[in-house]
Amino acid sequence: xxxESTRGPRLDQPMERGVSLRPSVDPERVGRLSERIARxxxxxxxxxxxxxxxxxxxxxxxAGPKELRFDEWQFIGLTLLLSLQASYAxxxxxxxxxRQADRDRVQYQEDRARTDxxxxxxxxxxxxxASLRVALGEVATRDYLRSELxxxxxxxxxxxxxxxxxxxxxx
Length: 171
Hints:
The chain has helices at residues 27-41, 44-63, 76-138, 142-170. By secondary structure, the protein is mainly α. The protein has one domain (27-165). It is elongated.
């Protein structure tokens, strides 16, 4: 039994080429985060927070003391903040929609495969039922046998009666 060494490089795996300067980002984690943010941006709570923020901003910068107002130019800062928020919200919402479209596509393919299997199973069962009907049509049933035996018995009784009449006429 060979022991694998945990020290040193493994010869059955390629070595790392170098250090990448690009940050490594887990797309699944980013996607989940974008969905959470998009879900929050589409909620009534966000609309309430945003409305409250805008009302406080407008009231403070119109009715507050002039030396404590933080938007020196009449609502240009507010416009800048809203534009910045919108510029980040739109791509996050698109990311969430793309992920949902991917999930829908996979679900559609699974549903289609399941439907194809169900159709194939139904066609198989239909063929089986049809073959059973054909086989039952060829099998003599109890009622059929009784009627055939009754017909044979009636024929025999008629022949016996006819033979008795012929024998009685001959004597």
